Amino acid sequence: MPGTAWAAWPERPITLYVPWAAGGGTDATARVIGTLLEKKLGQPVNVVNRDGGSGVVGHTAIAQAAPDGYTIGIATVEIAMMHWQGLTKLSFADYTPLALMNLDPAAIQVKADAPYKTIKDLVADIKKNPGKLKASGTGQGGIWHLALAGMLTDLGVDPTASPWVPSKGAAPGLQDLVAGGVAIAACSLPEARSLIDAKRVKSLVIMDTNKSTLFPDVPTLKAETGSDWTMGAWRGIVAPKGLPADITKKLIDALDSIYKDKEYTGFMGKQGYGIRYAGGDDFLKFWQDSDKSMGVVMKKVGLAK
Asked: Are residue 94 and residue 154 in the same domain, yes or no?
């Protein structure tokens, strides 16, 4: 269809699907983006929660919508995991990537009085005493489980040497750490923030190429061990595959502007969410790399179908 036919877009409200329930971090991120998109595009942006199926329902709704610019969505890191688990065939190939807007890298926490001064100390103990140091922070096969397993694998340690204790999220996993039920909690630094500030836990490392602005004293895995392994929970705005190029450009330009907006950065900072931007093809490359990393570690721990 000729680009000129879309010149007036948008002429009516836009729907933004969220693959998770209302009230969570993804929902909050989508709503602030939706509010700012309304200002940029001059049309209402209706945020609709389509949760269910461990994220499959909402991600499917985005992919199956008409590629006309009137339905977009917020994709989360689970879309790089679900097809490996056999939950869906959907992957990056089924979407038009618009903009990565958020990234919360994985970090490794231990109790404040734990004997480990560095991540190398902890990994050495895991390797020396397989099965002794249990870890938690999410469900079996969740992002933080895979982050720890991938890190150990990259450091030449059997990922099963630190048995995973499933939890309903980072908060209960951290409480289990404080209570002594597990020795390690893998999660993002924002999720561990209150316990770090209270000096009840300490973070040994962050799995990112850059240090955290929230806790700049926490070293990167690369600096501590030489490992290039990185992993984190991410969120990005996407559209169905086949979105016309001119609408794609308008949305990417709007999202780039939102990412730089003080209202967005202020909201994300207040919530403790990390921000990271990649637009268009750069977002696609990031997504493809994330997908590949997930496949490697999920196969390693026996979670890939």
From this structure: no
